[in-house]
Amino acid sequence: MSIAASTEVSAAAQRFVTFLNRAVTPFHAISELSKHLKSDGFNELRESEDWKLQPNGKYYVTKNNSTIFAFAIGGEFKPGSGVSMIVGHTDSPSLRIKPISTESSAKFLQVGVSTYGGGTWRSWFDRDLAVAGELTYKRDGHLHRQLVDSKDAILCIPNLAIHLEADREKTTFNKEVELRPILCSEALAKLQGNEAINSPGGGPNILEDHHPIFLRYLGRLANCEPEEIVDLDLYLYDSHQAAITGLFKEFISGQRLDNLVGAYTCMEGLLESLADNSLTKDSNIRIAAAYDNEEVGSSSAQGAESNFNEWCLRRIFNNLGDSQASLFERGIGRSMIISADQAHAQHPNYPARHEDNHRPAFHGGVVVKINHNQRYATTSTTHSILKEIAYSAGVPLQQFVVRNDMACGSTVGPMLATKLAIRTVDVGCPQLAMHSIREFADTSSIIYAIRLYIEFYRRFPTVIEDFKP
Prior knowledge:
Blueprint: H1 7-22, H2 26-39, E1 43-45, E2 58-63, E3 67-73, E4 83-89, E5 94-105, E6 108-116, E7 129-139, E8 142-149, E9 182-185, H3 186-192, H4 212-222, E10 229-238, E11 243-245, E12 251-254, H5 257-273, E13 285-291, H6 308-320, H7 327-332, E14 336-340, E15 343-344, E16 366-369, H8 380-393, E17 397-400, H9 412-420, E18 424-428, E19 430-432, E20 439-442, H10 444-466
Parallel strand pairs: 1-2, 4-13, 4-14, 14-18, 15-19, 16-17
Antiparallel strand pairs: 2-3, 3-13, 5-6, 6-9, 7-8, 7-10, 11-12, 12-20, 16-18, 19-20
């Protein structure tokens, strides 16, 4: 029986889809991953507090509620030991509510949005859009953060009728003025109470920045009064849930596959690698991390280009070390990162867009991404190590190389390889429609990735010790 049709594949894919439907924003993704870690015995740390770490301990720390860094310390860790690290990212291209969002036209109330990342924005038209994110409110002199999720569709961006297009064969739109979602009609807004909200004074609020009826709605979601709201960070998303689809239920259809597949599978790989007693005999630290803001370059405090990773690693090494110097630098030589970000499967309608000898396929296994101009961080050394681990895990590997006449994307892999001077390999699961509001992947990739990552965590210290570069 093909792996794609196995019950194990279906069960793993369904668990991922359940996570995906809850992780509607980076904030919600971190909330869900934190719950998984806590239920498995991980202890939460805070940046601003002292860390007390010990071998065989399991810990995690978050930043901005949108980035997470989880680690389990090997029982045989000693000064000079390294890290076995897998990373992904939590963000995806999206429309986000502007700081001042009051828009109206043709007797409709609209919401101003900013484009985030390189989305296929035409796919956002004619979708039932929900809104979710994080809201900050002030009560009793204190600021509070609250996750919110409408779940229901409250916004829509209707297409222009084909009859009104200047050129029916080539439809275009302006992202600033023609990508504004409709919230409601002015008539119903007036009936339902869109009158101004009185400010109590004495504190910050955003009453003048958004439609009153929208703020009242958000206040109900957050269990606060609209005049208490100080700020918000909200994303639009497709309210139709991700699903397992296809004649043989072999595909995953949904938003945010890029890159919640990577974020989820690296965490699951870490958790499942701890199911046996291998951690007690491990000399390395096993790390799974997922960062925010990759889709816009990672240049943020919670992005992979920040010093957050180095500071976490140095704190761990210093906490576990003795008076010996250069523990971090020594450990890097026994370390490796897998950068897990989605990969382009060959599109059946556009086969010429792929390089002739590098055509990743569904159910073909995890994709290794290679670029000789260093848009990906894979080297011959890291590729060889991964091949050995994949062979041991029984996971097939594919390879992706972009055509010479096309631009190549990138990942957090080259950033981390550069900042940390650590050996890195770029991989991903194959998918179609990347950056669309409805992306398309295969079910077997989930379990292939998890199996590969489990084996990496368990075997990398032995492989690198025996490897003679």
